[in-house]
Automatic annotation (TrEMBL):
Residues 27-147, 157-281, 296-417 form the Thioredoxin domain. It comes from Biomphalaria glabrata. Residues 288-297, 304-314 have a biased composition (Basic and acidic residues). The keyword Ribonucleoprotein does not apply. InterPro entries: PDI, PDI_thioredoxin-like_dom, Thioredoxin-like_sf, Thioredoxin_CS, Thioredoxin_domain. GO terms for cellular component: endoplasmic reticulum. Residues 287-314 are annotated as: Disordered. Keywords: Redox-active center, Repeat, Signal. Residues 1-27 form the signal peptide. Belongs to the protein disulfide isomerase family. It comes from the Eukaryota. GO terms for biological process: protein folding. This is Thioredoxin domain-containing protein 5-like. One of its GO terms (molecular function) is protein disulfide isomerase activity.
Amino acid sequence: MAERVTMYVYMFVFSFLHLYLGQIGHAEETDKDPKEPTPAFVYNVETFEAALAKNRIFVMFHAPWCGHCKNLSPTWDELAKVYNQAEDSPLFIGKVDCTVHTALCADHEVVGFPTLKLFEAGGKAHKRYSGKRDLSSLKAFVQEQVLGLDEELKERDGPSQPVEEKSADEPAVASQVVSLDVDNFADTVAKGLFFIKFYAPWCTHCQTLAPVWEELAGSLSDNKNIVIAELDCTSSNLICKQFGVRGYPTLFWFKDGINTDQFQSPRTLENLKSFVQNKLSSELSLQHGEDDQKIPEEGNDVPDQVKDNPEGTVSDLKDETFKSQISTGLVFVKFFAPWCGHCKRLAPAWEDLAKLMAGQPVIIAKVDCTQHKAICDENEVRGYPTLKLFRDGQLVKEYRGGRTVEDLSSFVKKELEIHDEL
């Protein structure tokens, strides 16, 4: 018996020294038999801090009683075999038992199990993993994040290898893509048409798109109606949050500072060119159509179809004629944007409301704020859709009720009754 105990002690000490000397800062703390060590490093407070100081680590914060943790554990150990036993590994895989090291888990805002976080060496940055928990998904996340962190380090610390200098007579290739950032974004896109790529340097899909995006910009360099641009979300995160960027790359079409459409097809050069040409054709034809409209010089007469509207159709209001069209009678206006999901859901009910109100002394109308920004700004439209009721050119109230045709028609009929009583 004594010999067996001595053998176990010897094996444990040997394993401990091997791990400690091979991967400094990764001493294990485990209750398992030394003959069956877990491939993932088991951290306590001291070893976690030591590992984090020297290495990039991907950690599973868990609890032994957690069923999801038990299900993930074999996959986590498989992931550890890939990285913990490899030479020149870009990171190490570890675990922290939050029932034992509660303070450590609290420090890292662990509120559920398992919580998976990838830390940069030194702990200055981390990324929480919330994807699928199979081995291939975890490996893909590691590779993507490691590439991203490496790019951030290059930007912060400078290149680790000498940069090859170009010959003095070798001309630099100028990019045709306009680079945007948090400082110049608003002023740059405030006027005109822009096709903008929101990206992150570490994103592999963004890297694949980069030469295609450059080629797209080059092919349109002589077209003065459109600007091909890009914005790095890792350095201008506030802008990306403002426009709801949820993944990379995201490609948005802007008109006069407003995001009006999103490209969602396969990102080939042909598809991108086709998208741009279709948008340009639509925008320019609309612009020419508006330019051709003539406002009456005298009397400021309102078109008959807007005031009478016997067919019960929705009147399309524009900047140039908005005031004249709401100047007489009751007008219920929907201010919207074509890309707005709530607006899309409201559209059928708004059409039905117009049909229901046919023959009544009320006009059901709409204003596309992506096309008529000035009038929407003047009417203090802060979100989409915004529904406002006007009487004789004056705002009566903003509607905030339900958006079924029943709710909307009840509101309008009540306002008509009030007016009749007066």
